[in-house]
């Protein structure tokens, strides 16, 4: 079976990827880290068990492309343009609607700014008070 980087994903391959991606523990790991090579190695092994022979780089690229396309269509829908669509939109919506949007509180922003301004700043402790 051809597994070159330029080979298009079949509908069955994408469905298999989505089924693995939809698992709660996979979603949580993908959301919780930027260095996700290990997660995609695991996903590629799971896909191989399902008969899909893709390496981790192909899985990560497809994941990123699907996510980007989904967000583009979702933004268009939220802007009133419901004519823009994509295959697997509803599957991706079910997966990504559970992904928490990063929210930065004012306290978080202030502490991050202080941490970058004061290189050796340690958090305050209540010892000795």
TrEMBL record:
The residue ranges of the Myb/SANT-like DNA-binding domain are: 7-95
Task: Report the InterPro entries cross-referenced here.
Answer: Myb_DNA-bind_4
Identify the PANTHER family for this entry: HEAT SHOCK 70 KDA PROTEIN 14, MYB_SANT-LIKE DNA-BINDING DOMAIN-CONTAINING PROTEIN
Q: Know the name of this protein? A: Myb/SANT-like DNA-binding domain-containing protein
Q: Highest lineage ranks of the organism?
A: Eukaryota, Metazoa, Chordata, Craniata, Vertebrata
């Amino acid at each position: 079976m051809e597994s070159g980087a330029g080979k298009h994903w079949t509908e069955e391959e994408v469905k298999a990827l989505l089924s693995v991606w939809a698992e709660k523990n996979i979603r949580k790991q993908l959301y919780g880290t930027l260095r996700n090579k290990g997660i995609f190695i695991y996903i590629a092994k799971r896909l191989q068990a399902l008969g899909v022979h893709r390496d981790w780089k192909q899985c990560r690229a497809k994941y990123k492309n699907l996510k980007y396309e989904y967000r583009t269509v979702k933004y268009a829908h939220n802007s009133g343009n419901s004519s823009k669509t994509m295959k697997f939109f509803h599957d991706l919506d079910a997966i990504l609607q559970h992904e928490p949007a990063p929210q930065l509180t004012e306290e978080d922003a202030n502490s991050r700014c202080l941490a970058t301004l004061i290189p050796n700043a340690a958090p305050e402790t209540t010892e000795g008070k």
